[in-house]
Design goal:
globular; 3 helices
Length: 141
């Protein structure tokens, strides 16, 4: 089984056996960070306002930023991914013109970023983000 399929199967198992959203998000971020050897894994979700993303879970960023960091769809790299529904991989995220820094996250030490939209029934529900301290070129494998 390929790594991608294995990760997806493990995420599906976590989701299917959990009945608590925060627990599920924490377990998914932990799994993805470990399996992709990432320093950070975060999940931003769209809730009641369809134009607003909220940091709902993270491994690696300051946990005090959870529920406090919000950005609009289209704002920053995360918002860009939500808006375009396309993943983005950036080796030097801080140098990207769409990068948006949130001091409360403690993310200043992370160079690379990979973000993917989370889509359910053709609607974007959030963005999954991984970040690394060392520059990393994310490939298709």
């Amino acid at each position: 089984m390929s790594d991608r399929i294995s990760i997806l199967a493990d995420v599906a198992e976590i989701v299917s056996r959990s009945h608590d959203l925060q627990e599920t998000l924490a377990n998914v971020t932990d799994l993805v960070a470990k399996r992709l050897d990432a320093d950070v894994c975060s999940i931003y979700l769209i809730d009641t306002d369809p134009e607003l993303l909220t940091l709902m879970a993270t491994i690696g960023l300051d946990p005090g930023a959870v529920s406090r960091v919000q950005l609009r769809v289209g704002e920053g790299l995360v918002g860009l991914v939500a808006q375009g529904r396309e993943p983005i991989a950036v080796e030097a995220a801080r140098e990207h013109p769409s990068f948006r820094y949130f001091p409360e996250t403690g993310e200043e030490r992370y160079d690379s970023l990979l973000a993917a939209p989370m889509v359910m029934q053709s609607a974007t529900i959030g963005v999954l983000v991984i970040q690394t301290v060392d520059p990393r070129s994310f490939d298709q494998s």
